[in-house]
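Encode chain A's predicted structure.
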Amino acid sequence: MSEDDAMTNLRVQEYLDEVSNLNLPISKSQWYNIDVASLLADCKVVGHDIDESTGASLIFLEKSVLLCCCHSGKMHHYPKHLLHCFVDDKRDSHDSPDGVIFKAELFSISPSNEQLCWEETCHSEIQIPMIQNKVSRWLSWLNS
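Encoded structure for chain A:
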């Protein structure tokens, strides 16, 4: 096994471990551990993000991302060249009706029924460094 293969296996295992820590029903956990894991067997995983509130996840591959929606049982694939990052810093304005002071989006320019819109928002300045870290990883991946 090459060093790249070992690193990919490690990233897949880290992803599956993080998913297993979610409070998901057994059927959704099995979907991740069987269906998604088998799909990732020969893919070079670069990283991942997980939305703990929904159980959805975003898997970064070399030239694309895979959005996994466990509640619908669907996986959506988006080529890297169709993705963009948007950051909205509202700390200085006090007109945010929903209380969001910082927001980051990774989104696709694709047909409306197949668009990616992966959002990270925060209502407290304490959360901003965590989101900035994620945005840094997204931009690093987008520019690689």
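The radius of gyration is 16 Å.
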